[in-house]
Amino acid sequence: MISQEIYKYFADFVFKKTGIFYPEKDFYRLDSRINTMMKEFRCDTPDDLYQMFLTKKTEQMERFLIDICTNNETYFFRDNKPFDALVNDIIPQLQEIYPNQTIQMWSCASSTGQEPLSIMMSLKEKFGDSLNFSLKATDISSKALKKATDGVYSNLDVQRGLPVQLLVKYFESVENSQWKVKSELSKHVSYSSFNLLTDIFERNKFHVVFCRNVLIYQNPENKQEILSNIYHALKPGGFLVMGAGESLIGTNIQLEQKSLSGCMVFQRPKE
Ligand SMILES: C[S@@+](CC[C@H](N)C(=O)[O-])C[C@H]1O[C@@H](n2cnc3c(N)ncnc32)[C@H](O)[C@@H]1O
Predict the structure, then answer these.
(1) Which CATH code is given to the segment(s) 81-267?
(2) For residues 245 and 212, what is the distance between their CA atoms, to the nearest angstrom?
(3) How far apart are CA 91 and CA 122, in angstroms?
(4) What's this model's pTM, rounded to 2 decimal places?
């Protein structure tokens, strides 16, 4: 039996750290997470776990809780259109505004890496080695980042969205029927931890930011705050790519909405 006090403590903790909100009517959704933590930290009762968090919480415990509360669902070339828009429209437009510059990109909720890898494969396929770009990929979940950094994917992972010709070109088969991304691709991406709610954003830095399927978990205030920070992280003329069906509705962010290759994207006004 988990008391309201314990539910409230963990719901508040997760909200403060990630912005993910468990209203009182959904407290039951914390049950399996509390059970998982009890097993991990060898606690006999929810109250033991609660006392452990109150008195000797460590960074590792915090990280574990964040890992089990985040939804890391992702797959290769998710929704397809953003990757077409990137290579057919966004990059050519940026090359006109910023000729000869290295294109700086950020995948800011990159989960287990399928999104940044899809970006890189799209660029490589379209531009070969002629495009200078760098890609920063970040996430709040250390478990997701570990998998992204290892770059090893199961058969099931690669069957979700990755065309066979790209699989054999950019991945090598390793033990246990798994696939490891080749260094010619992985060398272009740097993975690190970044919390969109609490970490400090770089300003005027990126030509392109992918922020997909993460703001749906945020309340309107947090969404406004994160999008405002992304606005300032973009260079003038830079593009924000959001998830299918995500929009600026409910915010006052002055990004211009454009339809490119059938994909809705958002551009910071050029100065
Ligand atoms: C559903 S996945 C989306 C992954 C990828 N962008 C895609 O569209 O396929 C959402 C990711 O956002 C991350 N996330 C959740 N809250 C976050 C926060 N406050 N800061 C950074 N990342 C966060 C989660 O860990 C998760 O990996």
Answers:
(1) 3.40.50.150
(2) 10
(3) 11
(4) 0.95
Cα(271)–Cα(268) distance, integer angstroms: 9
Return the pLDDT at 141.
97
Low-confidence ranges of the chain (pLDDT < 50): none
Residues having CB within 6 Å of any atom of ligand 1: 18-19, 70-74, 78, 109, 111, 115, 139-141, 144, 194-197, 212-214, 243
**Whole-number pLDDT of residue 55:** 96
Question: How far is Cα 102 from Cα 86, in angstroms, rounded to an integer?
Answer: 15
What's the gap in Å between 19 CA and the centre of ligand 1? 11
In the chain, domain spans = 4-69, 81-267
Structure tokens given for 138: 């970040």
**Distance from the alpha carbon of residue 111 to the mean position of ligand 1, in angstroms:** 6
Atom of ligand 1 nearest to the CA of 195: 20
